[in-house]
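Quick one from the shared queue. A colleague (R.T.) flagged Adenosine 5'-phosphosulfate reductase as missing a structural entry in our internal table.

Convert sequence to structure tokens.
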Amino acid sequence: MLTYDTWEESLIQFDVDDEYKGALNVLKWAYQHYGDEVVYACSFGIEGIVLIDLIAKVKPNAKIVFLDTDVHFKETYETIEKVKEKYPELNIELKKPALTLDEQAKQFGDELWKTNPNQCCEIRKLTPLRETLTGAKAWISGLRRDQSETRKNTEFLNLDKKFQSVKICPLIHWSWKDVWRYVSKHDLTYNPLHDQGYPSIGCFHCTKPAFTMDDLRSGRWQGLNKTECGLHD
């Protein structure tokens, strides 16, 4: 089994077909290879909606984890409920951090996302994902190469040193248009904030409409020297 400890660069190659650009082939391999020991960490953005639909074709009862920071948009929570209705067999878990928002404020001060956004992400996203990945051999992510400069070198299979895992990214060859074509073709439910200028959706304190479609993550942490929550650094 390919794991963090047995990692070999470019050991496995996948056919990049015209219809799915390799995504379905990668997912089939992932669930055949890891079974229940792979988890999809899903933000329920538009890429997540596509991946959920693809995963449901391969493993209808797959484990999907949403890192519930308690400060997501209401539209995000509503989208999750609609997805649960559409795919009732999926094992969708909302993973919360150890600290409530009140406990975090007492320990680190009010509005930590303003004073120290990296620490806020550590508490509310990174630590919960580490806990989620305990015992898992690999995890799936919806990263695409054209999302940002920091993601342009992402491969289908990646050695994840931060979480000491194998990170699987089936959508690396998908463009923004590819994602939306798939959603339209299959009439998939998605977060309505995407129609209001939010190509990338995170916590409501740290997410604004994007300034430009040339950088789909330009609406995240505006005014701060920060482009990633830390999950994919």
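The chain has seven helices and six strands.
The CA atoms of residues 200 and 217 lie 6 Å apart.
Added to the table.
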